Amino acid sequence: MNIRLNIGTKVALAVAAAAVCVASAVGLLVHRITATDQLTSARSDMDRRLMAAVYDQAAGRKSEARLDPPDLPAPVSRAVRRGVRVTYLQDGPDPVLWAATRISDRTVLALSRPYGWEADELAALDRTLVTTGAAATVVVSLAGLALGVRMGRRATAAARMAERIAHGDLDARIAPQGRDEIARLAASVNAMADALAARLEAERRVTADIAHELRTPVAAMVTATGLLPPGPASELVAGGVHKLRGLVEDVLEVARLDAHAVSVETEPRQVSAMARRAVAGLDGAEGRVVGRRGDGQADGPGTGHVNDLPHGPADDWVDSPKAGHANNPPHGPADGRVEVRIVADAVAETDPRRVERVLTNLVHNALRHGAPPVTVEVDVETDAETDGDGAGAVVRVRDHGPGFPPDLLAVVTASGPQRFRTGYGSAGTGLGLTIASGQARLLGARLTFRNHPDGGAEATLRLTGGGPADGGAE
Predict the structure, then answer these.
(1) DSSP-H helix ranges across 259-280
(2) pTM of the model as a whole
(3) Please, are residues 376 and 339 in contact by the beta-carbon 8 Å criterion?
(4) Does pLDDT of 330 surpass 60?
């Protein structure tokens, strides 16, 4: 079992362990010093009394000492026979302190007294040391816990601010407190955010300036290509100019999104209608709508107006070229089939033009880097499915290719698509996902990416503000 402890708990445990070690060491030291002092003092007193008894014995006076006591411990007897005056503590349930000396070749004079009082005093001292050490450990542990919780809160606040900065909130800052390492970390994170914001602002200005400077010559090139005589060479030049114009427009849109120089115009709109318009706006894409529809909406290929879904050929697949569509990314042709599947419809209060732009970019990216068929699924999630975030419309765009590369998926999952990130194993600036992510943030929607368990890449757009469509999917 892998148990994760926060910094407050770790600091409290470390302080408690240190307090236990210190209390134990101090208790042992006090115990040994006290026991040694007690024994030394008792032995000195017994030796003094033994010498007095020897003088009394020599003078023929009565004394408390005994001659050759039968209960004399063997170690004392052996030491005395060697001519040594000795004091000895006999351990046991009832400890006894002995003092003995030899007064003749065959006679031993000995004194003894109980040592229980000193043992009781030492035991009482040990209990006092244990109680005091436990109380001190608890107090120090609580202080350590308070310190650790405070450090943990500061570190957590710094981590959350760093995460906000990583997700694009460059105005987030940490309020440094104190002069310790965490305060230094907070100041470093703030300095990093300032430097990052300055670099990004410089990048935005350069990007916008370059794109603005290119608009005029690119517009002139577009006009000039219209004057070229028909032929393969003219079509090749026109295609290249068309891509260049689209790239300039994409870069300008990224600059506007970064500078927040855009406005959102919301209106109630059926999500299925926006999905069909997005698919209809692709260059060279085949699309159809699948699902049970309400009145005035039939199953069939979706290439017409958002509320007018015409029936196409018998196989339900139609070509839907929309070159020059306002929401069409002006890149290369999107060769593949797109299926719009209506599971459940809803009406969302949103900016339809921006939603269609997001979906168009997602489908274009799926066709370009994945494999057909590409499915655009419109559904409604309940509160339980969104973990209490509220019911709302959701649009899933899935292809059947190899999926997102692991390194790219880690980046888009952690911090969202990055500007000017070249697609894995392919050329291009990768602005499509960046624009889609920026438009989603502007709308207050959630755009997430994953690899589908059954294969292929899947992007999910969750819209907020709306309810089920009247006469929607059953």
Answers:
(1) 271-280
(2) 0.52
(3) yes
(4) no
